[in-house]
Amino acid sequence: MEIDYNLVQRAQMLLTLDHPLSQVRDILLCEGYPQDQVVELIDATEEVLNYLVPPEYDENKIGIDIMRPGEKTEGRKPGVDILIDKHSGKLSLMTPQYQETWKVANEVRKAIRHQRSVGRYYH
């Protein structure tokens, strides 16, 4: 399918302004761009971004994959929503556009704080 060059430029501009892909899609549709072109462009962009910028984790980091309400488990690709540095306890939100990511991150932060405060008494 041929995608309108103006649509591509507008999407690039919105992405450089740090809009999440879902919001870029909604903005483009509200601005009147053809739905089939918008969906194809967003899907292709998501595929490329997920391929080119995979979350980096190793033996020093823990990745958390969050199942969202209504998400199907069959055929689901696991991904990292939250990355935790084992040494510093620093959290990196890989999918901050989802409310569930923030909820889980807050619980993890509480657990890390609690673990550190309990650890002070034993050292």
TrEMBL record:
This is Uncharacterized protein. It comes from Desulfitobacterium dichloroeliminans (strain LMG P-21439 / DCA1).
